[in-house]
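Morning F.,

Quick status update on the modeling queue. The single chain you submitted on Monday has been processed. Sequence for confirmation:
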Amino acid sequence: MEKKKTYPIDKFVYPVQTFIQQEKSSGIVLGICVLIALVLANSPWSEEYFHFFEHKFGFRFDGKTYLEFSIYHWINDGLMAGFFFVVGLELKREISGGELSSPRKALLPIAAALGGMIVPALIYLSLNPAGDVHKGWGIPMATDIAFALGVLYLLGKKVPLSLKVFLTALAIVDDLGAVLVIAFFYTSEISISNLLIGFGFISTMFIGNKLGIRNLLFYAILGILGVWMAFLLSGVHATIASVLTAFTIPADVRIGKHDYIAKIQEYLIHLKTTDVEKKHKSTLSENQLDTLAEVKKGTNMAIPPLQRLEHALHPFATFIIVPIFALANAGVSMHLDVSQLLGSVAIGVALGLFIGKTIGVVGTTLLLVKLKLAPFPEGMNYKHLLGMGLLASIGFTMSLFITSLAFTDPEYILQAKIGIFSASILGGVSGYILLNKTGNKN
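Structure tokens below.
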């Protein structure tokens, strides 16, 4: 077999690719960015750090400025729309052929996710029943899939695969719940005309899907310039547009697995029998180029556009968008007084996440198993379930995002961040310790 040629740049590229491909890497990068944000927020450059995200920019045309928002706003409404688009792709994939594709598979993680959303919200509301603080009830409802799964993958083979699958499915349903909460409860005044324009573009994309259009550029142009822009101007949060757009991306294939294998075998035979002049060893003949083009075309037809897009965008969302979001939102000054540490928002968020998530996830799961409505996940035991419930209390990214929608008062935002950090650290550490001690034992 001919040895693969290497170049000097590979010494840098290969380690980076290897790191990105590891499941725990996203949690590590996110953790580093959180630490950087905390350090900057408590350094001599703290004023510059906070002020940087207040700078505004937009698009100027014919003497008028359009879409002029702060950097902070562009990150939360622009970049995070890309993150939610990937979330939407994951949701559709799981519903089409994954853990949420059948009622039997989906019932337990859906119920656990719902329990893990309702109980935290009730705990928060019991401590913040009225006033502006009331708006924060959605903050403790969310699970951060990157951090939670990052902790699981640090444990390696000490936890069963079924636990990882269960937590992934639960977190995906949790993300869908968070999207619905944002859509129905954290939306400003609505412009019906812009909203109808947005749904018009979505309908066009859906029709394109049914007609057999597989060109991703078609969906990109209509999704970004049409749906996202219309929703941004409508008052409905632009992240909702991203999820709806993702659901219009085709999830089927143009060529079946067996036909694809047969075609590839034909192309390989053709490549072997094609001669190349010796003086052009480093280049290909026209016949070979045509054959490889057909291989590429056939491969693209054998991969659902949805998964092709998800595979391409997932590293960008995980290693670019979410870390930038963390840098912009995780900065908390440690010059705190007792009223901030023990404020009703901070306590409500912390207890909602740490206690509410754990009770909601574990309690709902046990209830369904006890009622024999769903089987207990194979390979897991009750300690595994409790450990998973604790990890579900890591609510970093989504919780911070909902905080930015729920509050404008800096005091409440600060308290919410304190509650999120406290619960996430407690949940992550305690979940890791419990699962590490439990090991992969039934």
